[in-house]
């Protein structure tokens, strides 16, 4: 519940999610749930050339189990790391 | 409770008897917003790009789901992206779509779901052209098996280093 509450405070902030398969996605955090599944709006894939399949995708739902780490903007209090 | 007292409002939390001015808390967002159901409800009946843990990309319309992110997709196409090495010059970037019909996907295999922006969907992915299915499929199969081999070796070496099997070792993550 702790991290769930933490993520709730980050709603509408820009965050960068790094997935376990090395894709990094930056977007606006719109929603989170108890499993730490994440919804991001207006995404930008940071290593775009390696991953072309998300070129026409604006919003994503990311399953919590595939997230390696999440980084918020520095001025909003730094990031949380988890393995 | 003294009937004359106002019952504390849900926003005030620890305030007893109205002594202190309540601090403004974080903006009160509707609690239903924060469930898997709420997140996936927005995506229902929309054309989605589903990326699975083994690297497959499925395009389809999300019909239904549950709390584990088990999904039912209809009109599904499996899309493959390859860089075909070409003897003269840069590799040709090809993609192809294979129609698959209706899928039920178990939630644990889902990596991410992306809502496809229909305006941008008409264009080919940047740098890629549609290629013949047989060719793309063959190249993809070959590259996949090569990568699986090297991933297995890497995972085994990592496991040896750390003294045991790692979570998800041997499984191809994209």
Automatic annotation (TrEMBL), chain B:
Keyword annotations of the record: Cytoplasm, mRNA processing, Ribonucleoprotein, RNA-binding
Domain Sm: 35-119
InterPro entries for this protein: Lsm1, LSM_dom_sf, PTHR15588, Sm, Sm_dom_euk/arc
TM annotation in the entry: none
Location in the cell: Cytoplasm; Cytoplasm, P-body
Pfam families cross-referenced by the UniProt entry: LSM
Stretches with biased composition (Basic and acidic residues): 139-159
Span list, region Disordered: 1-31, 139-174
Family that this chain belongs to: Belongs to the snRNP Sm proteins family.
Function: Component of the cytoplasmic LSM1-LSM7 complex which is involved in mRNA degradation.
PANTHER family: LSM1, U6 SNRNA-ASSOCIATED SM-LIKE PROTEIN LSM1
Subunit architecture: Component of the heptameric LSM1-LSM7 complex, which consists of LSM1, LSM2, LSM3, LSM4, LSM5, LSM6 and LSM7. Component of the heptameric LSM2-LSM8 complex, which consists of LSM2, LSM3, LSM4, LSM5, LSM6, LSM7 and LSM8. The LSm subunits form a seven-membered ring structure with a doughnut shape. Component of the heptameric LSM1-LSM7 complex that forms a seven-membered ring structure with a donut shape.
This protein's name: U6 snRNA-associated Sm-like protein LSm1
Organism: Lithohypha guttulata
């Amino acid at each position: 519940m702790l991290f769930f509450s933490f993520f709730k405070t980050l709603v509408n902030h820009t965050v960068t999610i790094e997935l376990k398969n090395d894709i990094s996605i930056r977007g606006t955090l719109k929603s989170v749930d108890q499993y730490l599944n994440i919804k991001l709006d207006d995404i930008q894939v940071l290593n775009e050339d390696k991953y072309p399949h998300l070129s026409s995708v604006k919003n994503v739902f990311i399953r919590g189990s595939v997230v390696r780490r999440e980084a918020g903007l520095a001025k909003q209090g730094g990031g949380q790391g988890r393995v | 409770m003294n009937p004359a007292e106002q019952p504390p409002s849900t926003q005030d939390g620890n305030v007893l008897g109205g002594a202190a001015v309540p601090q403004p808390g974080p903006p009160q967002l509707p609690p239903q917003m924060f469930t898997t159901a709420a997140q996936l409800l927005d995506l229902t009946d929309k054309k989605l790009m589903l990326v699975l843990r083994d690297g497959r990309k499925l395009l389809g319309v999300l019909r239904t789901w549950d709390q584990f992110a088990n999904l039912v997709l209809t009109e599904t196409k499996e899309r493959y992206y390859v860089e075909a090495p070409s003897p003269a010059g840069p590799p040709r970037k090809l993609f192809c779509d294979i129609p698959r019909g209706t899928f039920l996907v178990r939630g644990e295999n889902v990596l991410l779901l992306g809502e496809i922006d229909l305006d941008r969907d008409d264009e080919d992915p940047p740098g890629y052209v549609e290629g013949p299915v047989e060719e793309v499929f063959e190249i993809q199969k070959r590259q996949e098996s090569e990568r699986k081999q090297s991933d297995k070796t890497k995972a085994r070496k990592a496991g040896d280093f750390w003294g045991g099997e790692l979570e998800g070792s041997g499984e191809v993550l994209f």
